[in-house]
Amino acid sequence: MFCMLSLLNLLDVSLISFVALICVANGGIWTFGRTICRVNAFAQQSLFLANLLTLTLIAMERALTLIRRHLVTRKIFGSLAILFMIIPICFATPLLIPGFQVSVFPYRYLCAIGSGSPVLYSLAQLLVYGGCIFVLLICFGSIIKQKRIVRSLPAKPEQYGAFILENRILDEHMQLSRLFFWLVFEYAVIQGPYICLDFFVQIRNSIEVQQSFAQFTGSTTSKDVDTLVTIIKIFHPLIVPTMILVSCNNIWTQLVDKICCRFNKSVVGAFNSMAVGGANNNNPSFAQLLIGANGNANNNDFANNPHVMTLYATPNGDLQLRLPNATVITQPPAQMVQSIRNNEENEEFNERIIYRKNKNIFQHPSTQICTDTECSSSDCNVYNNGNNLNKNEKNNKGKNLNFGKINEEEGKLKKLGIKK
Are 28 and 107 in contact (CB under 8 A)? Predict the structure, then answer.
């Protein structure tokens, strides 16, 4: 959409501003003939409305991307772009008809609709302009509302990568939205006064107004006002590309690379290929919808400083560290790996010692000998007391058996009448 806006401003420079400057150089005298005059008026009526409709389309794209991402597709917005280019041409086509009055305004150094035009034509144009302004205000409110929404961290750590990626693309989306705000503000301040003046003169010179308010048709605007408003309007097609290049610095880099036939493997391209997950990612994420929808994921370089290492997140939850030379660290340093391995070996060795000690304790409790230096004195007392208890129980059992045998022998002797 920004490219379309740049193309419209290029046509504005060639068909309107350039012609006005030549007219100024000729002392304000129009020397191009009636045909060029009609083409100049046609270009003004079509490009003014086309610029506003393009800004409206950008506003719809910025707003819908945040709330209805499935609607932001190339097919839908491509169709809207074609429709929005047909509407200005339809409004400007009557100016090419010989019966439609077109006059030269000497203090504007341009041609415009003259006297005798129908007032309904001007009112229809005003209705379209008003509808565009209404849509712009709605989109402004939606973007500001979405910007104030607080995003919280996901509950699962494996979703942090996708969360970081979405925040990066949302930040870029808001940067383009700020650029869009400034473009609308520039259009209202620089282009707006000339459009208002054109509508005022156009309605005043219409047939219905001349017949009903004949006493007001003789009044004219000051020539100084016409000249000042026209000079301010000439700067519009120069300011818009400058604002786009300043806000999207990588566009200038790509333009210079193409002019100089240079090929630069940018980090942003690698990041975007990583963001969409390559050919193995079949589940479109929020980042993919944004990148695929508006095609502007490369408008801001995430690695503006080539001398700083940058941490990138993938949709799979992985984090990758990218060096200034655009190389990806897939493994940690060797010293870190060796340190981790040593810690793991020490932990495994300690676990083996504890396992063996516990195994001996539970399998052979009676033969436990506390000769191990790691065994505490309390453990030794417990196990020794256990051994003593086992020995006492065995002795008591033996005594009880002997006492029972003696009682049986005494009973037999009493029956026989023999005393022991």
Answer: yes
Residue 150 exposure: Cα atoms within 13 Å on the Cβ side: 1
CA dihedral in degrees (78, 83, 88, 89; nearest 10)? 100
Length of the chain: 420
- The pTM (predicted TM-score) of the whole model is 0.59
CA distances from 311 to 249, 302, 316, 347 (A): 21, 10, 15, 32
DSSP code for 279: G
Q: What is the mean pLDDT of residues 171-195?
A: 87
C-alpha distances (whole Å) from 358 to each of 49, 345, 350 are 87, 20, 12
- 310: Cβ–Cβ under 8 A, 6 or more apart, which residues? 267, 302, 303, 321, 322
Measured CA to CA, the distance from residue 119 to residue 113 in angstroms comes to: 12
Residues linked to residue 311 through DSSP beta bridges, in sequence order: 321
SS3 category, 105: strand
Task: Give the pLDDT confidence of 82-93 residue by residue, as tens digits.
Answer: 998 999 999 989
